[in-house]
Amino acid sequence: MAFEGLSAKLQEVTRKLRGKARITESDLxxxxxxxxxxxxxxxxxxxxVKEFINTIQEKALxxxxxxxxxxxxxxxxxxxxxxxxxxGGTESKINFTPNPPTVIMLxxxxxxxxxxxxxxxxxxxxxxxxxxxxxxxxxxxxxxIKQLQVVGGQLNIPVYANENSKDVVKIARQAIDVAMSKxxxxxxxxxxxxxxxxxxxxxxxxxxxxxVKPHEILLVVDSMTGQDAVNVxxxxxxxxxxxxxxxxxxDGDTRGGAAISVKKIxxxxxxxxxxxxxLSDIEVFYPxxxxxxxxxxxxxxxxxxxxxxxxxxxxxxxxxxxxxKKKDLDLDDYLTQLRQIKxxxxxxxxxxxxxxxxxxxxxxxxDKEFVRIEAMIxxxxxxxxxxxxxxxxxxxxxxxxxxxxxxxxxxxxxxxFEMTQKMMRQMKDSKNMRxxxxxxxxxxxxxxxx
Length: 450
Hints:
By secondary structure, the chain is of the alpha/beta class. It folds into 3 domains: about 5-85, SRP54, nucleotide-binding domain (Four Helix Bundle (Hemerythrin (Met), subunit A), Up-down Bundle), CATH 1.20.120.140; about 100-295, P-loop containing nucleotide triphosphate hydrolases (Rossmann fold), CATH 3.40.50; about 305-450, 434 Repressor (Amino-terminal Domain), CATH 1.10.260. Helices cover about 60% and strands about 10% of the residues. It contains 21 helices and 8 strands. The protein has helices at about 5-20, 25-40, 45-60, 70-85, 115-125, 145-155, 170-180, 200-210, 225-240, 255-265, 285-295, 300-310, 315-325, 330-340, 345-350, 370-380, 380-385, 395-405, 405-430, 430-435, 440-450, and strands at about 100-105, 130-135, 160, 185-190, 215-220, 245-250, 270-275, 280-285. The chain has an 8-stranded mixed sheet, sandwiched between helices. Strand 7 (about 270-275) and strand 8 (about 280-285) form a beta hairpin. The two termini are about 25 Å apart. The relative contact order is 0.10.
């Protein structure tokens, strides 16, 4: 996962600071030296690291932080604030035109993930109420048009292609006409890339920009290429003038230096981050939330947003009513809850967003475990799911065979389930817990956290 190494090192530094009632100037210098090494190991540009460290030092020494009652917390706040600023300050949104369609032009090198990103972005914008049209403007790469059509088909999003033309400007203009006639309010142009930046590529992109006048030019860069990603961003911005960056494969880069360097070097914001292989794995890039994740402070707002998007409110309310009537949680209820949580993404990625969970090194979450649990419950009869006490030795052997697991795994799961049942009983019996849970709305909680 992105920033894994940097996150571990910075969290260790902040942990040491929190425990100190008094910090000397030499303590601060030692801490900054560790931060500097952590950033350089994360592949952050040296000039940026130097400026970042100098700024923190100036602010920490200039505000009498070392003499304050909570110097450690003060220094951590300065580090976080500067990290947020380095990542872009605030989130940067797409500028939608009041006269649709809004034309978004995706550019980048070959292999950066433009075509998949086009689909992911279209999917994200559709969730926001837009009606996107994908446009195949890569007329050179073999099967590029087919790839976009497959992506569009998987998402049920229309794709415009003209396989009889090599004129990219003509294709883009035709697509805009189609979008206007079909009432598509967003047009996403998937342009051609090259293995490296060359004059022919830039000339074609400049030609599209001059004739089509896209409202947004987003550069798609592979974060796993490290400093090369920053150099690519700089070259595209100087030649073409980009409006923002989409970082791909952020889940595969444990260093994350590109994300930290790209805004400072280009002056252009990171607008989106692709965090996985699924076509739903893209999110708006929030500098403050990312800084909080890096420093182990969690990202509760993102968890709430994922819950709002993934959890079926009617299903959740129905389950709540059922649980109130029942004495105990049964395995059908458990399976329903498990499936709701799975819709939010991998459990390991959700855990990293919970404040303090990054510090627990022993917590290892295997998402495949949830697949095995689902198989176990699905291999039970209706009666067994409703009354788990029926699960004797013979039944457990049958369930193990049916789910491709072992009896030991069944026993381990049932022990865990019984603990969950006990906890749910205690929650139901607690008046304070009922008061807490009654009327809590994710939207209200999100407002309180902002």
